[in-house]
C-alpha cells in the first residue's frame, strides 16, 4: 500500500532542525544521540536538539515516510537506528537545491563574493 | 529513569511515550544532559504534539464536513432545533424556578395569615400582637388592596394601581429605593407616597427633584418621598405584582384599628436559622391565645351576625413555592419534553455517524493500518461530531432566543416572573454542557463501537458490511427514536384534546358582539354615598344605551372571564345553616338579557327593585339544585352576608362559568340598585358599533371628567385570552412533537435507505431468480415497520408513564385516553411506512445486472 507522493518541493522550505537531521542521516544510519551530536557539531553548537524535540521530529519523519526506524542489538540493548528512505533523500536534495539557488541569488546581488 | 523525565513523559501522546521513553532516557545519559532541561524539552514536545493532533483533526473534520454538505446541514439543523428548544425551556426554568426572587434572602420570606386557608386574611391589631409576641420572625409587615386611584393634575386623568402598606412592609422586603426613601412607621397617617420608576418617568419626566413635589390621587395631594427601582415587585399570593404607587395605611380607618377587619396580607421574614415549621408552631401559640381572647376576630359571621366558622390558628406559607408553585408541573413537563427531543436528535446523529462510519470503513481501516492508532481514529470522529455539535449549539442558542421572543410577544404569558426570563450566563453554560453531551452520545459512542469492528473490516477486505453489534444498535436506535417521538406526539395529542374539550365547554352566556367596559369602580369622596353611585350608574346607562348599535347595558361586579371572583357567605331560611362561601355578583336589570343568560324561573331584576323595596336575589340553577334539590325556588328566602337582611329569591338563571377551566358552581346575584358595588358595564351591540370605544370614553368623560378613561374590551376577546393559556401549551407541545416526528422519520428513512443500499446485491439476485416487485417492497416496508413496532410498543409504555405527569395541565382529559393512544400509534405506523416507502421503491427498481456488477 503506497500513498500518492506529492512533489517534494511542496514541502519546502524545511525547518532548519529538520534539514540538519536529514543531513546527519545523508551518509548512513545513525541512532538518536548520534544524530543530535552530529547536528550540534556541524552547526558549531548553534542547533542543539534536546531529546524531546529530536524524537518528535524523528517520529513525524518516520510516519511521513522520510526515514525508517530499525532496532538493533548492540551494547545498549535496544537502540533505535534511523536511515533515509529514497523519498526522504529526495526531500533533502530538494531543500539543498533550494538553498543552492538562494545562495546563487545572494551572489548575484553581491551579498557573497563571486566564486573563483 | 529520572523522575523529572518520567513526569514530563506524561504530557506526551501514549505512542510517543511507549516508543521513545527508553531512547530519550538513554540519550540523556549518553549525552550527559541535565535532567531538568531535558524534562522541560520533553514536556514542550508533548504539548506541541497534542496541539498538532487537534489542529490536524479539526482540519480533517472540516474537510470531511465540507465534502458532505447535505449531511452536515441536516445534522446541524437537528442539533440546533433540539438545543434551541432546550435553551428556551432552560431559560424559563432558570428565570422562573431557580433564580431567586428580587429580594435579599427570599427563602426567608413567608406569607402570614390568621386563616390557614386564605393568605390575605389578617387584621392590623392582630398583626401588631403577632409582631410583638413572636420569637421567630425578624420583621412582619402587611400590604392591603387599594382600589385603582385616579391621578389628576398631570395631563389627562389616569387610573393608577397601587398598594396600601404598613410601616414595616418595605423593611420585610429589604429592598432599596431608586430615589428618596420607602415608607416606614413614621409615614403612617401622613400623606406620603412612593411612586414607581414607570410613573416617575412617564408622568414626572424623570425629574430628579421629584421628591419635593405633590401627586394628586382621587383629589387628595400626597408628598412624594421616594421612587422605587424598576425591578421592584410586590409579593402577593397570586404572584409578583407590579404596582405604580405605595400609600401608607390610614391608622384611623376601621381597616387599621378593628380586629375583625381581616383584609391585610401579612408578609414576614423569618429570623436567621429559623425554619418554617418552627415559625408555624410559634404562630400557632400566638394565634391560639389571640383567638381565645378575641374570639370575634377569628369568627366568620354573616350580615345577620351568625357565626359561620372559626379558626384557632394561622397559616404560614413560604413565598417562593407559593408564587412559582402553580407553573412548576408545566415547566418540568416541558423540560422533560425538550430533553426527549434532544435525545432523539442525538439518536439520529448517532445513527448518521454509524452509517457514515460504515461507508468510510475502508478508508478508516486503511488509515488505521497505515499507523494511525485506533485512539487517533476515535478522536478524529469525536472532533467531527464536536464540530457539528458546536455549530448546532451556536445556531441553537439563536433558535432558543427566537423561540423566547416569539413566546413573549403573546401578551402576558401565563407564567409568573415571565419578564425575568432571559438567556443568561447560566443558560449559556447549560448550552455548552448540552453540546458536550451531544458530542459524547453521538461521537464517542459510535466511534468506540466502531473501533471494535475495524479489525474485522480489514479481514473482509474493506467491504462496507455491517457487523451484528452495529446492526442491532442501529435498529435499536430506530426503535428508541420512534418511542420518543411517539410519547411526544401523544402528549401533544392529549394537550390538543384537552384544549378542544376546554374551548367547547358551554360557558353559559353569549359573548358575541358584547363588550366589557372596565372603569375601575367608584371610590373617593364624591362617591361615598350609595345614592351618588346609583346616580352615576343611571347616567352611564342612559348615555351608553343612546349610542348607535347598543341594544343592552348593565352595570356589573365580578364579571366572568375578567379574573375577578367575589366569594361571600349566605344563609337560607330562618333556621341558620353554615354554608360555605360562594360566588357572588352584583348586576343591573339588563345583565341577563344582554349576555343571553337564560331565565329559568321567575323574573330578572327590574328598576322597581330599589334601595327601599323588598331585598331580592337571583340564584343560578346549580344553586337551586344544590340547596333545594329543585329549580322551583322562587319565593324562598336567603340572606347574603353583603346585605345582612333576608332576601327573596325572585328568579333562577342558567349556570355560567367564571373561566373555561372553572367548574359550574352555585352562585347568586344581587341587584346593583340594592348593593351598588360595580366596576364594569356589560354592553350588547347589534354588531355595528364602529367607534364604540371612543363613544364610551366620551360618555364617561362627560359623566365625570375626573374619572380615568375606561378600558373597553370585547367579551369574545376576554374568552380568547382565557383560552390562550391552554393554546400556548398546545403550541409548545405541538412544535416539540412535530420536531420529534420529523427527526424520527429522518431516522427511519435513513436506516431503510441504508439497508436497501447494502442489500442491492441481494435484491438483484432475488429479482434475477424471479422475485416480484411486491415481494421486495413488502420486505423493505416490513423491516422498517418491524423496527417501528418495537418502538411504538416501547413508546406507549413511556408515554403512559410520562402522561401521568400531565394530569395537572389537562382539562377533563384522561392521560390514558385509549382513542388518542391508538390514533397516535396508527399515525406513527403510517409515518414509518411513508418514510420507508422511498427506499422500498428504490429497492424495487434495482436492475439485476447492475446489482451483480456492484461487487
Description:
- The complex is a heterodimer of chains A (116) and B (855).
- Chain A has 116 residues and is an alpha+beta fold.
- Chain A contains 4 helices and 3 strands; from the N terminus they run H-E-H-H-E-E-H.
- The longest helix of chain A has 23 residues, at 86-108.
- The model of chain A has no long low-confidence stretch (mean pLDDT 84).
- Chain B is α+β, with helices and mostly antiparallel strands and 855 residues long.
- In chain B, strand 24 and strand 25 (646-653) form a beta hairpin.
- The longest helix of chain B is centred in the last third of the chain and has 44 residues, at 715-758.
- The mean pLDDT of chain B is 82.
- Classes of the chains: A alpha+beta (116), B alpha+beta (855).
- The A-B interface holds A 1, 3, 31-33, 36-37, 50-56, 58-59, 63, 76, 78-80 and B 8, 12, 16, 19-20, 22-24, 26-28, 30-31, 33, 37-38, 41-46, 48-49, 366, 369-371.
Topology (elements, then pairings):
The complex is a heterodimer of chains A (116) and B (855).
Chain A: H1 16-25, E1 30-31, H2 32-42, H3 51-63, E2 67-72, E3 79-84, H4 86-108
Antiparallel strand pairs in A: 1-3, 2-3
Helix pairs in contact in A: 1-2
Chain B: H1 3-9, H2 14-31, H3 35-67, H4 69-98, E1 109-113, H5 124-133, E2 137-145, E3 149-152, E4 158-160, E5 162-165, H6 169-173, E6 177-180, E7 192-195, H7 197-203, E8 214-217, E9 220-228, E10 234-236, E11 239-241, E12 245-248, H8 254-257, E13 264-270, H9 276-293, E14 299-301, E15 307-310, E16 315-318, H10 319-324, H11 328-359, H12 361-369, H13 374-409, H14 425-459, H15 468-503, E17 514-518, H16 530-545, E18 550-557, E19 567-568, E20 570-572, E21 582-587, H17 591-594, E22 599-602, E23 616-620, H18 621-628, E24 637-640, E25 646-653, E26 667-671, E27 680-685, H19 692-703, E28 711-714, H20 715-758, H21 760-768, H22 773-804, H23 818-844, H24 848-853
Parallel strand pairs in B: 5-12, 7-9, 21-26, 23-25
Antiparallel strand pairs in B: 1-13, 1-16, 2-5, 2-13, 3-4, 3-8, 6-9, 7-12, 8-9, 10-11, 14-15, 17-27, 17-28, 18-21, 18-27, 19-21, 20-24, 22-25, 23-26, 24-25
Helix pairs in contact in B: 1-3, 3-13, 4-11, 4-13, 4-14, 5-9, 11-14, 11-15, 11-20, 12-14, 13-14, 15-20, 15-22, 15-23, 16-19, 20-22, 20-23, 22-23
Amino acid at each position: 500500500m503506497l500513498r500518492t507522493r506529492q512533489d517534494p518541493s511542496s514541502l519546502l522550505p524545511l525547518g532548519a532542525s529538520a534539514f540538519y537531521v536529514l543531513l546527519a542521516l545523508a551518509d548512513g544510519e545513525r541512532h538518536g544521540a548520534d544524530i543530535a551530536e552530529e547536528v550540534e557539531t556541524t552547526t558549531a553548537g548553534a542547533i542543539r536538539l534536546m531529546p524531546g524535540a529530536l524524537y518528535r521530529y524523528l517520529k513525524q519523519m518516520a510516519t511521513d515516510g522520510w526515514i525508517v526506524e530499525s532496532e538493533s542489538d548492540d551494547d545498549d540493548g535496544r537502540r533505535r537506528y534511523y536511515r533515509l528512505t529514497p523519498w526522504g533523500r529526495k526531500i533533502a536534495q530538494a531543500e539543498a537545491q533550494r538553498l543552492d539557488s538562494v545562495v546563487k541569488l545572494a551572489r548575484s546581488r553581491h551579498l557573497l563574493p563571486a566564486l573563483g | 529513569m529520572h523522575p523529572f523525565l518520567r513526569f514530563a513523559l506524561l504530557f506526551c501522546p501514549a505512542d510517543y511515550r511507549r516508543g521513545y521513553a527508553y531512547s530519550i532516557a538513554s540519550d540523556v545519559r549518553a549525552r550527559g544532559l541535565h535532567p531538568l532541561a531535558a524534562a522541560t524539552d520533553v514536556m514542550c514536545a508533548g504539548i506541541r504534539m497534542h496541539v498538532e493532533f487537534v489542529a490536524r483533526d479539526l482540519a480533517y473534520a472540516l474537510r470531511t464536513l465540507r465534502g458532505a454538505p447535505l449531511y452536515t446541514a441536516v445534522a446541524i439543523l437537528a442539533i440546533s432545533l433540539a438545543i434551541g428548544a432546550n435553551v428556551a425551556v432552560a431559560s424559563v426554568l432558570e428565570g422562573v424556578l431557580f433564580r431567586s426572587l428580587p429580594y435579599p434572602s427570599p427563602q426567608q420570606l413567608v406569607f402570614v395569615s390568621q386563616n390557614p386557608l386564605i393568605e390575605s386574611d389578617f387584621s392590623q391589631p392582630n398583626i401588631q400582637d403577632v409582631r410583638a409576641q413572636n420569637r421567630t420572625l425578624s420583621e412582619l409587615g402587611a400590604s392591603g388592596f387599594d382600589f385603582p386611584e385616579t391621578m389628576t393634575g398631570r395631563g389627562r386623568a389616569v387610573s393608577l394601581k397601587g398598594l396600601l402598606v404598613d410601616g414595616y412592609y418595605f423593611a420585610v422586603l429589604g429592598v432599596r429605593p431608586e430615589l428618596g426613601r420607602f415608607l416606614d412607621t413614621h409615614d403612617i397617617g401622613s400623606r406620603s407616597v412612593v411612586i414607581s420608576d414607570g410613573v416617575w418617568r412617564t408622568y414626572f419626566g424623570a425629574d430628579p427633584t421629584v421628591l419635593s413635589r405633590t401627586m394628586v390621587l382621587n383629589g387628595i395631594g400626597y408628598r412624594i418621598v421616594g421612587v422605587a427601582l424598576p425591578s421592584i415587585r410586590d409579593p402577593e399570593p397570586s404572584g409578583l405584582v407590579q404596582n405604580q404607587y405605595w400609600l401608607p395605611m390610614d391608622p384611623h380607618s376601621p381597616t387599621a384599628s378593628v380586629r375583625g377587619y381581616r383584609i391585610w396580607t401579612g408578609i414576614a421574614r423569618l429570623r436567621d436559622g429559623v425554619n418554617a415549621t418552627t415559625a408555624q408552631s410559634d404562630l400557632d401559640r400566638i394565634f391560639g391565645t389571640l383567638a381565645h381572647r378575641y374570639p370575634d376576630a377569628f369568627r366568620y359571621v354573616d350580615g345577620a351576625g351568625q357565626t359561620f366558622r372559626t379558626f384557632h390558628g394561622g397559616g404560614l406559607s413560604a413565598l417562593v413555592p407559593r408564587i412559582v408553585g402553580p407553573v412548576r408541573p408545566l415547566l418540568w413537563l416541558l423540560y422533560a419534553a425538550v430533553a426527549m427531543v434532544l435525545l432523539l436528535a442525538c439518536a439520529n446523529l448517532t445513527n448518521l455517524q454509524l452509517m457514515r462510519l460504515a461507508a468510510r470503513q475502508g478508508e478508516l481501516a486503511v488509515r488505521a493500518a497505515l499507523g494511525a492508532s485506533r485512539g487517533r481514529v476515535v478522536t478524529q470522529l469525536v472532533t467531527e461530531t464536536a464540530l457539528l455539535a458546536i455549530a448546532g449549539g451556536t445556531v441553537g442558542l439563536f433558535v432558543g432566543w427566537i423561540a423566547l421572543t416569539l413566546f413573549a410577544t403573546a401578551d402576558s404569558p401565563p407564567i409568573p416572573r415571565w419578564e425575568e426570563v432571559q438567556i443568561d450566563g447560566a443558560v449559556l453554560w447549560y448550552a455548552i454542557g448540552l453540546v458536550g453531551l451531544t458530542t459524547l452520545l453521538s461521537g464517542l459512542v459510535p466511534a468506540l463501537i466502531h473501533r471494535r469492528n475495524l479489525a474485522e473490516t480489514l479481514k473482509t477486505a474493506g467491504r462496507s458490511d455491517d457487523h451484528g453489534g452495529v446492526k442491532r444498535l442501529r435498529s435499536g436506535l430506530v426503535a428508541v427514536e420512534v418511542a420518543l417521538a411517539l410519547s411526544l406526539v401523544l402528549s401533544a395529542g392529549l394537550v390538543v384534546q384537552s384544549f378542544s374539550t376546554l374551548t367547547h365547554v358551554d360557558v353559559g352566556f353569549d359573548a358575541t358582539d358584547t363588550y366589557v367596559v372596565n372603569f375601575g369602580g367608584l371610590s373617593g369622596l364624591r362617591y361615598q354615598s350609595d345614592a351618588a353611585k346609583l346616580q352615576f350608574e343611571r347616567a352611564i346607562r342612559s348615555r351608553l344605551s343612546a349610542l348607535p348599535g347598543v341594544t343592552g347595558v348593565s352595570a356589573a361586579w365580578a364579571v366572568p372571564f375578567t379574573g375577578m371572583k367575589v366569594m361571600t357567605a349566605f344563609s337560607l331560611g330562618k333556621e341558620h345553616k353554615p354554608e360555605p362561601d360562594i360566588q357572588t355578583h352584583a348586576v343591573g336589570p339588563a345583565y341577563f338579557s344582554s349576555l343571553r343568560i337564560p331565565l329559568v324561573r321567575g323574573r330578572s331584576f327590574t328598576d322597581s327593585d330599589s334601595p327601599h323595596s323588598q331585598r331580592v336575589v337571583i340564584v343560578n340553577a346549580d344553586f337551586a339544585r344544590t340547596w333545594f334539590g329543585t329549580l322551583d325556588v322562587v319565593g324562598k328566602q336567603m340572606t347574603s352576608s353583603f346585605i345582612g337582611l333576608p332576601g327573596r329569591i325572585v328568579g333562577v338563571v342558567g349556570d355560567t362559568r367564571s373561566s373555561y377551566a372553572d367548574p359550574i358552581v352555585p352562585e347568586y346575584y344581587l341587584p346593583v340598585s340594592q348593593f351598588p358595588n360595580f366596576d364594569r358595564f356589560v354592553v350588547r351591540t347589534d354588531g355595528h358599533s364602529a367607534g364604540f370605544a371612543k363613544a364610551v370614553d366620551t360618555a364617561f368623560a362627560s359623566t365625570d371628567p375626573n374619572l380615568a378613561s375606561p378600558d373597553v374590551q370585547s367579551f369574545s376577546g376576554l374568552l380568547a385570552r382565557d383560552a390562550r393559556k391552554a393554546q400556548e401549551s398546545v403550541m409548545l407541545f405541538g412544535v416539540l412533537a412535530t420536531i420529534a416526528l420529523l427527526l424520527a422519520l429522518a431516522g427511519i428513512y435513513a436506516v431503510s435507505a441504508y439497508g436497501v443500499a447494502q442489500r442491492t446485491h441481494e435484491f438483484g439476485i432475488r429479482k434475477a431468480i424471479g422475485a416480484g416487485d411486491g415481494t421486495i417492497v413488502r420486505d423493505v416496508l416490513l423491516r422498517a415497520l418491524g423496527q417501528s413496532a418495537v418502538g411504538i410498543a416501547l413508546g406507549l409504555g413511556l408515554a403512559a408513564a410520562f402522561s401521568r405527569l400531565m394530569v395537572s395541565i389537562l382539562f377533563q382529559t384522561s392521560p390514558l385516553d385509549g382513542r388518542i393512544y391508538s390514533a397516535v400509534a396508527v399515525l406513527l405506523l403510517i409515518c414509518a411506512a411513508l418514510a420507508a416507502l422511498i427506499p422500498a421503491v428504490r429497492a424495487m427498481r434495482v436492475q439485476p445486472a447492475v446489482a451483480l456488477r456492484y461487487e
